[in-house]
Structure formats: C-alpha cells, structure tokens
Model the fold of this input.
Amino acid sequence: MKNYIKVERAKKDVTQATLAEKIGVSRQTINAIEKGKFTPSTLLALKMARYFETPVGDIFELEEGE
Amino acid sequence: MKTYLPHYFKRIGILFVSIAFILSCISGVDDFRKGFMKGYTEQQGLDEESAKVDQSITPYFTKEESDMYANISLFFSITGFFLYLFSKEKIDDEFMQHLRLKSMLQAFIVSWIIYGTAKVFSSIIPMDGIYILQMQLIVYVILFQRNKNKELSEEEEIALRN
Done:
C-alpha cells in the first residue's frame, strides 16, 4: 500500500512529531507508516484523514497486485 | 498484546532486576572466591596450594543459604521482567503493540537457537525450564528496545539523505 502522508504533511507544513501529537500516537508510528513498514488501523487512517481534511483514499492507495 | 500496568511499573521492574543481580552476586561470592584463588595459585605455579583451595577458604554462606539467595534472585528477576513486559510505554499505540509482538516472536526464536546450541554442550551448561524462561524475557527486553530505537529520527533521515 502506498501513502501520501509526507505530501499532506508538506502541504500543511507539519512535522511528524506534530502530526503524531495531534492524532495521539508516537512519532515512530508516523515514521513507520510513511516508510511503509507499518499499516495503520482504520481508526488511525480516519484520524489522519480528518486532520488533513482529505478523504482517506487520497492519503492511502492500494498498489497493483494488492 | 495488552498491557495492564502504568508506565512507572517499568522502573519498579528494573529495580527488581537490579535486586536480583545483587542477590545473584551474593549467592555466588563463595564460588567466585574459590575460583579466583585457584586461578591465582595456579598462575603462581603453586599447583599443590591450588588443589587445597577448597579446604583453605572459609565460605561466607552455607550451600543452603547460597541456594536460597539464588532462588530469591530468580524470583525477583522473573517478576521484574514481567512487570517491565506488562507496563505501558509513554505513548502506547498500535505500532508499539506491533513491535511488542514482533519482539516476542524474535525473542522466542533467538532463545530457542541459544538453547539448542547450548544443548549440544549440555554436560557443561544445564538448562532448566525456569532459566529458559528467564533467558526469553531478557532477550525480549533487549530486542524490544532495539526495535523501538531502530526507527530513525527525522533529523537522522535528513542527515543520511544529504
């Protein structure tokens, strides 16, 4: 699965730490999700979408073959 | 894996493990003294004296007392590690749960590799079940810390990219 969290963070000019604090997780979690090492739960994905004011499908995208 | 204890229980767990280490040293002090004196006298070329070390050294503790300290140490050690294991992180989110499970699986595999290797030399290294449990807990704590710290900071990532 691909994600565009870094792009959304750049648009909103927030660091990983700030995003992590806003949605109630650790910075390592945001880092791991951005790097594709960890797939967030639906709840976490929805919290991110709400924070970025963007649909979930615009932040996370299935890759070919998935 | 669910965690049940508040974050400060980690410090209590570390305190228990420290107590276990001290008690373990106390229980082994007579063996240490004998081993040291034997090695020292052999190194000095006094082989006859080395053979008499066991009789010449007055032990601080009886065998029963040593065993008691060793057993209490084991209790503190395992309790301390379990308190550490079941304590929350400062921010205990789903990624931390994921790291816990990953570390636990790795610890299980690594400890059984160590046990299997040690079993080849089983006449030298006896491995009771309780010590295998202790080893698994120690390996888990080490691997969990390693897995947590493996995530680079933003600054480190930028530095690596440049």
Notes: Chain A has a mean pLDDT of 90. The longest strand of chain A covers residues 2-3.
